[in-house]
Amino acid sequence: MRVHTQRLLAAAQEDPSGIVPIVQAGHPVLRMVAEPYDGQLDGSELEALIAVMRRTMHAAPGVGLAAPQIGLPLALAVVEDPGPIDDEMRIARERPAVPFRVLVNPRYTAIGEERAAFYEGCLSVEGYQAVVARPRLVRLTGADETGAVLDEVVSGWPARIVQHETDHLGGTLYVDRALLRSLAATDDLGGSWAAEPHPVAAAKALGFDLER
C-alpha cells in the first residue's frame, strides 16, 4: 500500500495541477473492499495523499472522493461541498455547505426509516446520473486524519455524501442502489432532471416511482 501511495504521489508531482486520474467504472479497484487504514503511511505521506485527493476532487469537480477512485484500495475519503447557490435547492435537498473533512475507516448505519430520493452522479461513472433513495439520517463512525474518533448523526445531503463515499470503500457504486429507470446522461435533458429540487418531472417522464 505504501509503495502504491508513493507512486501516486510521484505522479501527482509530475502533473502541473498536482492531481491524479480518476478511475472509471469497470476498474477492479472500484469493486474491492478497501483495506482499513491502520498507519500504513507516515504522517507526511498521509498529509500529501489527502492534499492530492482534495485537489483532484476540486478539479473534477466533485463534493467527495474516495481513495479507490484514484486506484488506491485504502479506506480513506475526502468530502467538501460549497452547497447550492439556489435557496430552493438548498432547502429541498437539505444541502448546507460542508467544510472540508477527511473520513478514515468510515462506517454508517441508518437511523429510522425515512428515505430521500434525489439524483446522484459519480466521478467514476462519467456522463450519467440516476436517482438513489437513501436514508435521510445516518450515524457516521470512524476517525479523522488525526486519529480523532468520529461518532455523529448526519442528515440530509451531507448524509448522502457520507453514504456515497463510504459505499466506495466497500466496492459499491451508486448505480448499484439506483432506480435504473431514472438513469440519464448528463446532457441538456438529463441535466434538467438533476436540476429539479425534487425529481418529480423526471419520475413522470421516465416512469419510475419515487416512493420505492
UniProtKB/TrEMBL annotation:
It catalyses: N-terminal N-formyl-L-methionyl-[peptide] + H2O = N-terminal L-methionyl-[peptide] + formate. It comes from the Bacteria. The active site is at E165. Coiled coil: none annotated. Its EC number is 3.5.1.88. InterPro entries: Peptide_deformylase, Peptide_deformylase_sf. Pfam families: Pep_deformylase (PF01327). The keyword Protein biosynthesis applies. It is an enzyme of class 3 (hydrolase). The keyword Metal-binding applies. Keywords: Hydrolase, Iron, Metal-binding, Protein biosynthesis. Its cofactor is Fe(2+). Removes the formyl group from the N-terminal Met of newly synthesized proteins. Requires at least a dipeptide for an efficient rate of reaction. N-terminal L-methionine is a prerequisite for activity but the enzyme has broad specificity at other positions. Belongs to the polypeptide deformylase family. This is Peptide deformylase.
